[in-house]
């Protein structure tokens, strides 16, 4: 490694050289404030009669290809600074009138006049910026919104408005200093990738996706980098925007390992995955990522080659089920790459996944429990020898075997929740009614923004509605107002309003929506008809969100599943069981006993809101039969855990007692869906 301080113009202009920005770097993205700051620093040099210097920063590079009299510098760090300076030099060149000085600037700092075409420009930005930069150097007009064009025009404006001449500003550039660091790419200790990571260790400048791209491309020669970028990474970016790539790689790693990387550790997990799989080289990884990137674009854009598949993917989005993506990537590959299953079978598999998700939403199972289930689904399927005939059954069996917070609700549980749930207060009311309308209807109306969810029995009861409902009208209204039996779809909402049921029927008889038109078969609208319609819609619901009949048996509530995450609120007998992990707000903590669980929950929730926890000291719920469980004194406690100087917690309790007190604490923090635990086999 060679490191020296040098004047920037000397660094750029001496010994004919070209600065290549490698393809793994980001686009040039200096903002207006950065450019103005640089320009003010240069004006400051001019104002002080060129007696002060300005340190611009560090430029790190490795030597690329060399030819007689010409050298190629591959810029690893500092591309934003050097690109900005080159744009400023060109803006000054445009303004300077001295012909000889202009020629000197052009041939010393902007071009290599007698170099081969590939090395003619002093600076070669990445491909997406290159066209704009070439146009600037060639003085050609270009309609482009890139930062290259914006900042070049900004520098020209700043030069025009400056109180200093273009010549003075150019002379001031001689007082700009940098430190250059030249790496020897053949030395392991000077690995460009490791140096680059060190320079960007704060994580403020590069996204996880940027780091992953650099990792896969940086250690290759420049021409090989360009080939890999063009053949793979640019196509991945064509499928997925940069902001999505980190999530994509996270789901890819989850599918591969069954473990879910933390969002800010995706790059670290990716590096570990690549380094542990010695049979993979960078090109093989890129090739595989490209295949999965197309599948992932189908998931987020619902644009697969199959219309029915896209409709189901839209339903996944409506239920905000990104947690299924790792499993979906695996199943897509089995269908489209390995041809293990047909597209028709794939569609049936997605239907059962949708059924699992929907039933759980209706029955109010915690969604956090799904993370582990879909993270490990691919590995569970991989252990089985599956054919087109058995693949669907395997997926159903795996999902139906889950218990606790991972349960696939059976028909009777689903029926109770579906009929009585306040569906209107959820985000799936319109989705539910649309699917009910669509079932067995070939001509489905377009449910655009004008179609709304309508209450048949209105939200505000008029005197006539009170008479129609009878003496128990308040009770009926409270119990059934927002339930499925009393909801429909309509574009006539303002017209229907609080009209009596008889009057509503006169309007709905002309509706294009069958579930609304069918209401006309009822002569009155009361508790009995609401229940009757709910039962009718439930029968359709079991066909849409199906669970094969052979799985509709009563679930063994005492069966322990060691592969799933149990919600802290699950009704589970843990006598004789030991915990191994606690998950609080998606953060995992290793535990060895139920005492550890109690201690960790108390610590973390106290950190979240100390005031809530301090209220437990005097709360009756924590008195216990023989002694207080949470107190401001350890007196009388057998094994106190000291949370703070004024809060002590009794830990000598059996497993179920500890779990019950944990539930009590969690409930008071309203975090029932945020805390889970795993049991040790």
Instruction: Name the beta content range.
Output: 5-15%
Query: Helical content, roughly?
Result: 40-55%
Task: Kindly name the structural category.
Answer: alpha+beta
DSSP E strands, number: 15
Domain GmrSD restriction endonucleases C-terminal: 408-539
InterPro entries: GmrSD_C, GmrSD_N
Keywords: Endonuclease, Hydrolase, Nuclease
Domain GmrSD restriction endonucleases N-terminal: 10-217
Please describe what this structure looks like:
One of its GO terms (molecular function) is endonuclease activity. This is DUF262 domain-containing HNH endonuclease family protein. Residues 10-217 form the GmrSD restriction endonucleases N-terminal domain. Keywords: Endonuclease, Hydrolase, Nuclease. The structure is a single chain. The longest helix is centred in the middle third of the chain and has 20 residues, at 282-301. The strands form 4 sheets. This protein has a 6-stranded mixed β-sheet. The mean pLDDT is 88. It is globular. The chain starts with a strand and ends with a strand. Strand 10 (579-584) and strand 11 (587-590) form a beta hairpin. Helices cover 50% and strands 11% of the residues. The chain is of the alpha+beta class and 681 residues long. The chain is built from 29 helices and 15 strands. The protein folds into 4 domains: 2-199, no CATH class; 208-407, no CATH class; 413-546, no CATH class; 566-679, no CATH class. Helix 13 crosses helix 15 (325-337) and helix 14 packs parallel to helix 16 (343-362).
